[in-house]
Amino acid sequence: NVHKIAVLAGDGIGKEVMPEGIRAVDAAAKRFNIGIEWTSFEWPSCDYYLKHGKMMPDDWKEQLDGYDALFFGAVGWPDTVPDHVSLWGSLLKFRRQFDQYINLRPVRLLPGVPCPLANKQPGDIDMMIVRENTEGEYSSVGGRMFEGTDREFVLQEAIFTRTGVDRVLKFAFELAQKRPKKHLTSATKSNGISISMPYWDERVDAMSAGYPEIRHDKYHIDILAARFVLSPERFDVVVASNLFGDILSDLGPACAGTIGIAPSANLNPERSFPSLFEPVHGSAPDIYGQNIANPIAMIWCGAMMLDFLGYTEAHDAMVAAVERCLVDGPRTPDLGGTASTTEVGMAIASII
Ligand code: NAI
Ligand code: MG
């Protein structure tokens, strides 16, 4: 059973961290006897855009559909292509067209990583943020009228469907079920957003009836953001709509240290389409070309990918290797070290 993986390195440091992600997955595949077949694509990327006037060929969906997973670096090169063009022309198409309705971000304070919050020890922060990834506040329903006049108005609707809400909640409850704390927090704002958020709360209560062992609570997004910073140790699984989840899933990793280690996954849990695994960080033009980008986020994404393909032991071994490297070194400059991307990647692969 060989898993076909599409390699989409993209732009900037995406091209530098990708080889280290592959190296680490190959090491785990060798140790746990997993068949992996990599295929590299030159798109989506801003280089491709400059040659062809688009981020990807028109038949991108047909070309990628047969793969078991998409291993994605980062796209964006703002000097030559505006960011909304590079992101809407690639990543956002994948999320929608491949119905990757779960955006999953593990947030953990790991040993050896300086924490920006006071008095936090490794182990204090260990949560999973589950963001709805296809509907909610990020709809394209709306419009503008009377532009440039005093009567100008702009309208953008949020869309919450029962299917869309229930499937993300179900995923989050199932995930909480598998974790020792069995605790789920829902982000809401039903005191201010008086139609959609009470509906969201109602669906959380309905779903919770099927999971009696799980403790669940809800917080309004404003106080929830404050609590992420003040007392992150109280959270386990956190589920949120598209917009709230977007904010929390950047805030969470920021509370747990450098952006160079944070991974994420865009999942289609039914496996009707390939899922996509990508670091939280972007293409980092400011450090590109020096071989100093931290490859750990990309490597951790590789671990999540193997987990999703069914290899939990391989995932655990990869994360353990990352943790050991964070303690013993080598480290890239963002963590105060002097090692290169390649040195860190090779060290982690050899631990695996
Ligand atoms: P960024 O994440 O690329 O960089 C932010 C800061 O973090 C920079 O100072 C960078 O040097 C540092 N950094 C990021 N990753 C690092 C790593 N692995 N090791 C060490 N330091 C690291 O975000 P920025 O600068 O806002 O965006 C740059 C480009 O990336 C833009 O074109 C943006 O649209 C794109 N982008 C793409 C994403 C994606 O493909 N999913 C996500 C975020 C941004
Ligand atoms: Mg974001």
Written description of the protein model:
The protein has a domain at 1-101 and 259-352: Isopropylmalate Dehydrogenase. The radius of gyration is 20 Å and the shape is globular. By secondary structure, the protein is of the alpha/beta class. The two termini are 22 Å apart. The strands form two sheets. Strands 2-1-3-12-11-4-5-10-8-9 form a ten-stranded mixed sheet, sandwiched between helices. The model has no long low-confidence stretch (mean pLDDT 96). Helix 1 crosses helix 11, helix 1 runs parallel beside helix 12 (341-351) and helix 6 packs across helix 7. It has helices spanning 14-32, 46-52, 60-65, 83-88, 91-97, 162-178, 196-208, 221-230, 242-255, 296-308, 312-328, 341-351; strands at 2-10, 35-41, 69-74, 102-108, 126-132, 142-145, 153-156, 183-188, 215-220, 237-240, 263-267, 275-279. Strand 6 (142-145) and strand 7 form a beta hairpin. Bound molecules: 1,4-dihydronicotinamide adenine dinucleotide and magnesium ion. Magnesium ion (MG) binds next to helix 9. It catalyses: (R)-malate + NAD(+) = pyruvate + CO2 + NADH. Keywords: Manganese, Metal-binding, NAD, Oxidoreductase. It is an enzyme of class 1 (oxidoreductase). Residues 4-348 form the Isopropylmalate dehydrogenase-like domain. InterPro entries: ICDH/IPMDH, IsoCit/isopropylmalate_DH_CS, IsoPropMal-DH-like_dom, TTC_DH.
Identify the notable features of this structure and list them briefly:
ICDH/IPMDH, alpha/beta, D-malate dehydrogenase (decarboxylating), metal-binding, Isopropylmalate Dehydrogenase, tartrate dehydrogenase activity, 40% helix, binds 1,4-dihydronicotinamide adenine dinucleotide, TTC_DH, binds magnesium ion, two-stranded antiparallel ribbon
